[in-house]
Amino acid sequence: MNFLIAPNAMKGALTAQKIAAILVKTIRRKFPDAKIVSSPVADGGNGTLECLMQALGGTVYEKEVTGPIPSLTVKARYGITDKRIAIIESAEVIGLHHLTPSPETIAHSTSRGIGELMLAAVEQSCNELWIGLGGTATNDGGAGMARALGIEFLDQHHDHVREGSIALLQLQNILLHKTKTAHCTIKILSDVQNTLLGVNGATYTFAKQKGASEDQLSYLEAAMKNFSEIVQRDLNSNCSDAPGSGAAGGLAYGLMTFCNAGVVSGIDHILDTIGFDDTLAACDCVITTEGMLDEQTLFGKGIAGIALRAKKFGKPVHAFAGRVNGDADRLKSLLGLASLTQISPEELDTQQAMRDASWLLADAVFHHSFPATQTGGK
């Protein structure tokens, strides 16, 4: 039996690398003679930096930059590969884990730190940047990132608009300057298809989980709308309707607008980069993981991308999730999985489940049935 271990991180609980180690050890206990290949994955969100740097080689640096609100500084990691490609994971800089989300934090949220890391990469002779989006606490349309690169945002008195999401309501003019990243090729790695504005846009889809109150949503949306209208008027650019522009609180929109960045499927780009298909062709079955599996998983998340690849090769995929939110049988069928297992009991508190994730995962995998007919066993 040849197993391909291809876990995605369980956000807030276990990294993909930690999960891979647990899975390898557990499968070894269950099937002592099994051949196991470990290939942790990511989809642009948590774990992207480690996954790509492990595959490509290079050096991981740390820099103190602006966090998800202007008053907060964080030490964020970024990578530079042996081929001088910069790898930036947005959650490292402006992730939700850096603060306690509230209406105040999202009102003042900024993506400035992303721009600061981009400049650091350019100063180290990188002319290609891969920026993974996911797990962010911001909702400023990438305005903070653009400020860091030297773009000016002015109010009606020609003063600089204050940093933050809500302050974009005061925006009247944008002064576009040539940035140090102008010569760079920038790729956005994301699994989000939401546009910037509207009921399915950045604010109405994601802002609540970032601390926004119900009453605050209309103000945040109005600020983003004003931002996009000034961009269209002053820059003759309109990316707000582009699929994926709403990713990371509209950071994707800012990268498209001010850096001419292109969006690629995070999971597909990473699977191609790590040579996943070659490994997949040689295995009998795949074991993968996700922290929360729900309807959003269907739209380009890690498990969806892995299952689609596996289907082409006729390989069964066994997925283990911290939680399954929705009709598990339906999700299993739509994703084309051989099995879908929630590792934590329904009655277990989420925080406790996250703390116990290591042994819950090991226990679920050890007691799982991997049919010999599905794995090529005799």
Layout of SSEs?
Layout (H helix, E strand, L loop, with lengths): L1 E4 L10 H15 L4 E4 L9 H9 L1 E9 L6 E9 L3 E5 H5 L8 H5 L4 H12 L4 E5 L10 H7 L2 E3 L18 E3 L9 E6 L11 H5 L10 H19 L11 H13 L2 E4 H8 L2 H6 L3 E9 L8 H12 L3 E8 L3 H8 L3 E4 L7 H6 L1 H10 L5 H4 L3
Parallel strand pairs: 1-2, 1-11, 5-6, 6-9, 9-10, 11-12, 12-13
Antiparallel strand pairs: 3-4, 4-5, 7-8
Helix pairs in contact: 1-15, 5-6
Describe this structure as you would to a colleague:
With 378 residues, the protein is α/β, with parallel strands linked by helices. It folds into two domains: 2-41 and 278-375, Rossmann fold (3-Layer(aba) Sandwich); 48-266, Glycerate kinase, domain 2. 38% of the residues lie in helices and 19% in strands. It has helices at residues 16-30, 48-56, 90-94, 103-107, 112-123, 143-149, 202-206, 217-235, 247-259, 266-273, 276-281, 302-313, 328-335, 350-355, 357-366, 372-375; strands at residues 2-5, 35-38, 58-66, 73-81, 85-89, 128-132, 152-154, 173-175, 185-190, 262-265, 285-293, 317-324, 339-342. The strands form three sheets. Strands 3-4-5-6-9-10 form a six-stranded mixed beta sheet, with helices on both faces. A five-stranded parallel beta sheet has the order 2-1-11-12-13, sandwiched between helices. Helix 1 runs parallel beside helix 15 and helix 5 packs parallel to helix 6 (143-149). It is globular, with a radius of gyration of 21 Å.
